[in-house]
Amino acid sequence: MATSRSAKERAGEIANRLEALFPGTAAELCALEFASPFQLLCATVLSAQCTDIRVNLTTPKLFEAYPDPQSMASADRSTLEHLIFATGFYRAKADHLLGLAARILEVYGGEVPEAMEDLVTLPGVGRKTANVVRSVAFGLPGLPVDTHVLRLTKRLDLARSTDPVKVEHRLNALFGPEVGGAMSLRLILHGRSTCAARVMKCESCALLDLCPTGQRCQPITL
Ligand code: SF4
Fold it and tell me: What share of the chain is helix, strand, coil (3-state, %, to 5)?
């Protein structure tokens, strides 16, 4: 029974099964296309309220025009807004891209910083985006927590808080910070394929015997 094992024991087995289903590093599992930490940072900012597919359709022309902090910081605003229009919230996102590029130039010598406390000082960059950059671009510990990760970890009873920062710390303690980025992406991929917000495919889920929610949803056999 899922509930007879500790969260730590279940987390270890869940990690093994998800790794078998979705092998690879955080960089290999990330769907966003980029050629540098700066481009990943921009792509992640654009992915807010937008699909990775649409971001990947948008960034080739954006990065052709503005591939680095120098060119982005001096971008023509109307041209920039036109290039990112399809990702939605284009005015705010243009503000963020211009602002973060300028700050990277002025404060960090043109290089995207690696430390969480530095990344979150960049305009438009919260803890989730910073963790994406740390884990995917730099191969450092970093566990992004989005709505998929919150939903999956609640259903799997690995974390009960709705506070993303508390869930991030809880999951790092359960999985180990070194696998955080890849584990976050595996949870997202499993959520999309099997454990969506409205439809749970528990009968075919590889985590069914480890999942209290899935166990509760199974028909009782007499
Ligand atoms: S068993 Fe059901 S609720 Fe649990 S992770 Fe799988 S699909 Fe989601």
Answer: 65, 0, 35
- Assigned CATH for 2-25+143-217: 1.10.1670.10
pLDDT, tens only, 96-140: 999 999 999 999 999 999 999 999 999 999 999 999 999 999 999
CA of 43 to the centre of ligand 1 (A): 30
The region, left, alpha or beta by phi > 0 then psi within -120 to 50, assigned to residue 216 is: alpha
pTM value?
A: 0.93
CATH 1.10.1670.10 domain position(s) in the chain: 2-25+143-217
Ligand 1 atom nearest the C-alpha of 214 is 1
What is the best residue among 18, 154, 194 to mutate for testing ligand 1's pocket, by most ligand atoms within 8 Å of CB? 194
* CATH 1.10.340.30 in the chain, residue ranges: 29-137
| List 146, 154, 157, 209, catalytic entry | 146
What's 29-137's CATH class? mainly alpha
- pLDDT tens-digit readout, 27-56: 999 999 999 999 999 999 999 999 999 999
